[in-house]
Predict the structure.
Amino acid sequence: RESTTDQAELDALEAKIAGTGLEKYVLRRGQGPDKRVSLTFDDGPHPAYTPKLLDILKTAKVKATFFVIGHMAEKYPDLVRRIAADGHEVANHTYSHVTLTKIPPEEVDVEYKADNDVIARLAGKPARYCRPPGGDHNNEVLRRAASLGLTTVLWTDDPGDYDNPGQAVLFDRETKALSPGGIILLHDGSKDTLGTLADFIATARSKGYHFVTLDELKTPSREIS
């Protein structure tokens, strides 16, 4: 599966950054107890999936964050332009989708900078958020991102859509994992996500959840106008 970092590993990594000053450059869960969640989509853009995802989100009036790969963005520039035009956040998923903990630190800079150059050109502004491929990171990777003005976004919910486990299984995982402040990891390239997204959004709303942007998620609700 594309996500190679599980929840226990994320908990351990979160503990390691406590007190280092890196905490403010990492977003894993939203602020406050209210039922707000954010949808995030990795690995696009993809011509067979991105337009359909955008149509579903537009119909549902939901804004999401798309973590795009630089070389894919260059290949399908109009899709990146549409993501931005539809009001979604275009975020950084590196230029070539490499495991950042397995390359020299200076290459981490190259990966994020190259992707941000593409994003700035196509979306009109550079990304403010990034996500390391597979979630693989260490303190040096986080420092490199922070030095470039990027907040590293992880997740609370990984329903495993990358493996296309079947729509019923995926829907069950998604709905059971819902929790206040959740960041939901999905993929721009999963047929099961296309098949379940509209129903998942409707079900989450019926349970009192609101879909918000990452900016809103990290801001205590009382501060949102």
Observations:
- The two ends are 39 Å apart (CA to CA).
- The chain has a mean pLDDT of 93.
- DSSP finds nine helices and eight strands in the chain.
